[in-house]
TrEMBL record, chain A:
Keywords: Cell membrane, Membrane, Sugar transport, Transmembrane, Transmembrane helix, Transport. The keyword Transport applies. CDD domains: TM_PBP2. It is found in: Cell membrane. It is a multi-pass membrane protein. It holds the Pfam family BPD_transp_1. This is Maltose/maltodextrin transport system permease protein MalG. The chain crosses the membrane at residues 17-38, 79-105, 117-142, 148-166, 250-271. Residues 80-271 form the ABC transmembrane type-1 domain. PANTHER family: MALTOSE TRANSPORT SYSTEM PERMEASE-RELATED, MALTOSE_MALTODEXTRIN TRANSPORT SYSTEM PERMEASE PROTEIN MALG. It comes from the Bacteria. Belongs to the binding-protein-dependent transport system permease family. MalFG subfamily. Part of the ABC transporter complex MalEFGK involved in maltose/maltodextrin import. Probably responsible for the translocation of the substrate across the membrane. It comes from Devosia rhodophyticola.
UniProtKB/TrEMBL annotation, chain B:
The lineage of its organism: Bacteria, Pseudomonadati, Pseudomonadota, Alphaproteobacteria, Hyphomicrobiales. InterPro entries: AAA+_ATPase, ABC_transporter-like_ATP-bd, ABC_transporter-like_CS, ABC_transpr_MalK-like, ABC_transpr_MalK/UgpC-like, Mo/tungstate-bd_C_term_dom, NA-bd_OB-fold, OB_MalK-like. The keyword Transport applies. PANTHER family: MALTODEXTRIN IMPORT ATP-BINDING PROTEIN MSMX (PTHR43875), OSMOPROTECTIVE COMPOUNDS UPTAKE ATP-BINDING PROTEIN GGTA (PTHR43875:SF1). This is Sn-glycerol-3-phosphate ABC transporter ATP-binding protein UgpC. The gene is ugpC. Pfam families: ABC_tran, OB_MalK.
Length: 285, 361
């Protein structure tokens, strides 16, 4: 319909202005973080604010990796590895289980199906932080505090219901006829899934995977409760290393935030095509 | 060689029985059409033969094997779906060759079989296209090609033409018939369209509410329908069916018209019957199909005339209902015009009113 309505110039410009304001509110804090990563500490709290770094520097990154003489480095590499291991493992497992679950909900009838699906969705309505205390107590009993495995389990619990919900929708859109035709063409049910339904659901699975990855990658609240040392601390938790009793190292923190953003950004760009196709699946059929 | 035999086949979903113990024997290379209104169990029956639904009871035999427990892939059948069910992510060539590839045939053989099928169906120019870039008729052909490539014992068609427009449907109907002449195989074809059934079938199986009402050649079911349902379902426009009572060897209609019944109809005095006759048996004088040697003259006013070119369908009141007549070699008829109709007495169908069953020989 939008092609049919003729916009007057002032309408077009006011829409652009509105979008600009909205995007500014969303992106300026992020931009500020990125800019701060490249400025000397003295510019951070300057009044009036210094927007563009006057003396751009890579010192903050150098300090992170212990390449600077002023300050001892932080175990950023270890945090990065922890984050990667935890996020990738929990994403792969969540997508594998979620895909199976989503397929089952989309294709099979079984007793209690509606209730179970609702229960999964309701689990998403509980704020994660509300679980932190009970989780902490149980994890402590089980000896899972400060382990990657403990955190992976938590992220699985968060991600699987969402993945099931998302993939259920994608499998529902693939006609049952296709799987049946494949079975008549000589496939087992398993082959029909892998050769016909899986390739068609791939964009949906890619979007499910990226959501799961970003959730685990960015999660702070639970990770901050359940990790203690370099054995399991993730990047977002590592940010807190920059706060001391009376001071906060804003530039160092921003540099680390940039390091957190980069992989997420790269990943999003790589799967962007799938992501958009995935999110608009119903519209383009 | 593949005959298909259904013995007392039942389908239940939970407690609801939708197919009630049907028996059917289909000969090798026979083209059988299952026809009936929606919900009559024809598609369910086909899906049970395909193995996509389990038969709740009874035995399904293909060739000399009882296939009840076999998965679809082990039945050596192929099926054309109403939606075509082409694999959207594969080219036409890959769609056609998919079954052979799964079966582990070698590339050269697959290419040969696929090319042969493509040639039969005229698909050569489209081999590298995706299904999304094909027209409805082309998709339909790919779906049929995919079915014939595997050289199955039995072809199953599940309403394959209902997604096409009327013109293309007529065209594809002819192609399916030609295909069967060329690729001799047992065919089971499901449709709700009685024209498809009449034109394609060696034998028609008419189903209603999970029962088989009649099995016969197109001529048999047309000329000798066993009950009022079949009489109304086969033929277009449908057979006129009027309530009547037998008095003195005549069927007396509710408006007093008396129609003499011949000795072929086993009726008793006072019996409530339904008198059936097809529109082509009720025509204005000089415009009938079978001549007027044994005809009853009835004068009637035309309510509506539908000129179709080679014939005109006339609507007139008779026996308390509006009946349809067919005027061959038509002249222009005005609505409200009174015409002398003839009712061909040799083409009457008489049904017992209580049971709906035919009492005509």
């Amino acid at each position: 319909m939008s092609q049919l309505t003729i916009e007057k110039p002032w309408q077009r410009w006011s829409i652009r202005f509105g979008v600009f304001v909205a995007m500014a509110i969303l992106t300026i804090p992020g931009l500020w973080v990125v800019l701060t990563a490249f400025r000397p500490n003295i510019e951070v709290l300057a009044r009036p604010a210094v927007w563009i770094p006057q003396n751009p520097t890579l010192d903050n990154f150098a300090r992170l990796f212990g390449l600077s003489s002023e300050q001892q480095g932080l175990p950023v590499a270890q945090y990065f590895i922890n984050s990667l291991v935890i996020s990738i493992t929990s994403t792969l497992v969540a997508v594998a289980i979620g895909m199976a679950g989503g397929y089952a909900f989309a294709r099979f009838r079984f007793p209690g199906k509606g209730g179970l699906f609702l229960a999964f969705m309701l689990s998403r309505t509980v704020p994660g932080v509300a679980l932190s205390l009970p989780l902490f107590i149980i994890w402590a009993r089980l000896g899972l505090i400060d382990t990657s495995f403990g955190l992976i389990l938590v992220y699985l619990a968060v991600n699987i219901p969402f993945t099931i919900w998302l993939t259920d929708g994608f499998f529902r859109q693939i006609p049952v006829d296709l799987s049946e035709a494949a079975q008549i063409d000589g496939c087992t049910r398993w082959q029909a899934f892998w050769k016909v339904e899986f390739p068609l659901a791939r964009s949906g699975l890619a979007s499910a995977a990226i959501f799961a990855f970003l959730t685990s990658w960015n999660e702070y609240a639970l990770a901050s409760q359940l990790t203690r040392t370099t054995a399991s601390k993730t990047m977002p938790v590592g940010l807190m290393d920059f706060t001391a009793q009376f001071t906060v190292d804003w530039t160092g923190m921003s540099a680390m935030a940039v390091l957190i953003i980069i992989p997420a950004l790269v990943l999003t760009f790589v799967v962007q095509k799938h992501l958009i196709a995935g999110l608009t699946f119903g519209g383009v059929k | 060689m593949a005959e298909v035999r259904l013995e007392k086949v039942v389908k239940r979903y939970g407690k609801i029985e939708v197919v009630h113990g049907i028996d059917l024997e289909i000969a090798h290379n026979e083209f059988v059409v299952l026809v009936g209104p929606s919900g009559c169990g024809k598609s369910t029956t086909l899906r049970m033969i395909a193995g996509l639904e389990d038969a709740s009871d009874g035995a399904i035999t293909i060739g000399d094997r009882v296939v009840n427990e076999l998965p679809p892939r082990a039945r050596n059948i192929s099926m054309v779906f109403q939606s075509y069910a082409l694999y959207p992510h594969m080219t036409v060539r890959d769609n056609l060759g998919f079954g052979l590839k799964i079966a582990g045939q070698d590339e050269a053989l697959i290419k040969k079989s696929v090319d042969a099928a493509a040639e039969i169906l005229g698909l050569e120019p489209y081999m590298d296209r995706l299904p999304a870039n094909l027209s409805g008729g082309q998709r339909q052909r790919v779906a049929m090609g995919r079915a014939i490539v595997r050289d199955p014992d039995v072809f199953l068609f599940d309403e394959p033409l209902s997604n096409l427009d009327a013109k293309l449907r007529g065209q594809m109907r002819v192609e399916i018939k030609k295909l069967h002449q060329r690729v001799k195989t047992t065919v089971i074809y499901v449709t709700h369209d009685q024209v498809e059934a009449m034109t394609l079938a060696d034998r028609i199986v008419i189903m209603r509410d999970g029962y088989i009402e009649q099995i016969g050649t197109p001529t048999e079911v047309f000329e000798r329908p066993v009950n009022t349902f079949v009489a109304g379902f086969i033929g277009s426009p449908p057979m006129n069916q009027l309530d009547a009572v037998v008095r003195g060897g005549k069927a007396v209609l509710s408006d007093g018209v008396e129609v003499p019944l011949g000795p072929d109809h086993k009726v008793s005095e006072g019996q409530a019957i339904i008198l059936g006759f097809r529109p082509e048996s009720f025509a204005p004088k000089g415009h009938s199909l079978h001549g007027e040697a044994n005809a009853l003259a009835i004068e009637r006013t035309v309510n509506i005339a539908e000129p179709l070119g080679t014939e005109t369908i006339l609507f007139a009141d008779l026996g308390g209902l509006e009946v349809q007549g067919k005027m061959l070699n038509p002249r222009v008829v005005k609505e409200g015009e009174t015409l002398g109709f003839t009712l061909d007495l040799s083409k009457l169908h008489v049904f017992d009113k209580a049971s709906g069953r035919s009492v005509s020989a």
